[in-house]
Design brief:
Blueprint lengths: L4 E6 L2 E6 L10 H16 L5 E6 L4 E3 L4 H4 L4 H19 L5 E5 L2 E3 L1 H8 L2 E5 L3 E3 L13 H9 L1 H10 L3 E2 H6 L5 E3 L4 H13 L3 H14 L4 H15 L3 H11 L10
Parallel strand pairs: 2-3, 3-5, 4-6, 5-7, 6-8, 7-10
Antiparallel strand pairs: 1-2, 8-9
Protein name: Enoyl-CoA hydratase/isomerase family protein
GO molecular function: hydro-lyase activity
Pfam families: ECH_1 (PF00378)
Length: 259
């Protein structure tokens, strides 16, 4: 069905793999359009509880955008390419499901930007991160100038964006770019463990929490906590809230139904 990606549903856990290992999983327009299509399918699939995004092979998560394809773009075409990629990454960020980035090897340019669109990032020890666009005469265009400061702070983000310097997984963890670093052979296991920690909780509460965080971070604090109160109130209209609290009071494990 797809030429540049693979997708499988493993008992309610989606695994999306960027599958161009010969070019270190570089993102061209065809790949981006396939990601966009699979995200539409994922959003419509009620059986999915979470999504893991990774790259094929051991060398690279995504080594950036496809420079060979990008090198001849006009200004108008460059803007359209950025807008398409931004829209696709926004779909990842706004999926109602929790999204885990399992980052193996290089996450450069668009690869780092793809990772940042995920909710939680787990890196293999061999992972490398950079926003090297300035060395090519361009800026980061897939959300990097905006998501990176929000994750690691303006000063560190500007350092990465201005210098294009590559950092290793340990440094990415230290500055808050990734949540966890594991041995390469344990990467997918660690991603599944994170998913298990999340999916044992009430699915609707997790989705509403994601919405509250994503929406509130763009608002002033007064508006954001007002939005939080609305989301909090919505929880009390769910069966999961009644089950969760009854289970707590009854000293038993909750059986959530996402209702």
């Amino acid at each position: 069905m797809y030429n540049n990606i693979t997708f499988v549903n493993e008992d309610g856990i989606g695994i999306l793999t960027i599958n161009r290992p010969k070019v270190l999983n570089a993102l061209n327009q065809a790949t981006m359009l396939e990601i966009e299509q699979v995200l539409t399918d994922i959003k419509a699939d009620d059986t999915l509880k979470a999504l893991i995004i990774t790259g094929a092979g051991e060398k690279s998560f995504v080594a950036g955008a496809d420079i060979a394809e990008m090198s001849s773009l006009s200004a108008i075409e460059g803007r359209a390419w950025a807008q398409l990629s931004q829209a696709v990454f926004a779909k990842i960020e706004n999926l109602p499901l929790p999204v885990i980035g399992a980052i193996n090897g290089f996450a450069l340019g668009g690869g780092c930007e793809l990772a940042m669109a995920c909710d939680i990032r787990i890196a293999a020890v061999n992972a490398k991160f950079a926003q090297p666009e300035v060395s090519l005469g361009i800026t980061a265009g897939f959300g990097g100038t905006q998501r990176l400061p929000r994750l690691v702070g303006k000063g560190r983000a500007k350092e990465m964006l201005f210098t294009g310097a590559m950092i290793d997984a340990a440094e990415a963890y230290r500055i808050g770019l990734v949540n966890e670093v594991v041995e390469a052979e344990q990467l997918m296991e660690a991603a599944h463990k994170m998913v298990a920690k999340i999916t044992k909780n009430a699915p609707l509460a997790v989705r509403l929490t994601k919405d509250a965080v994503n929406t509130g971070i763009e608002l002033d604090l007064t508006s954001a906590i007002a939005y939080e109160a609305e989301v909090f109130g919505l929880c009390f209209a769910t069966e999961d809230q009644k089950e969760g609290m009854a289970a707590f009071l009854g000293k038993r494990n909750a059986e959530f139904k996402a209702k």
